[in-house]
Amino acid sequence: PGDRMVLKTGIGAPVQIRCGSVPLFEGRIGQRKSRVAVRIEREAVRSQKMER
Fold first, then answer.
1. Could you tell me the pTM of the whole model?
2. Which among 3, 9, 13, 45 is least buried, having the fewest CB atoms inside 10 angstroms?
3. DSSP annotation string for 6-52
4. pLDDT, tens digit, for every residue of 3-51?
């Protein structure tokens, strides 16, 4: 049940969360028991051009 995502990075690695090509957040891959998650650490820096 559910969807499966294949990540090409390991636990503790930095990641950028995007919506399409727009960066939204920066965080790190984490794991608790058998589940994988992303801990959001900060908002992504966006250029002025993207905010318009």
1. 0.67
2. 3
3. --SS-TT-EEEEEETTEEEEEEEEEEETTEEEEEEEEEPP--HHHH-
4. 877 778 889 999 999 998 999 999 999 998 888 889 999 999 877 665 5
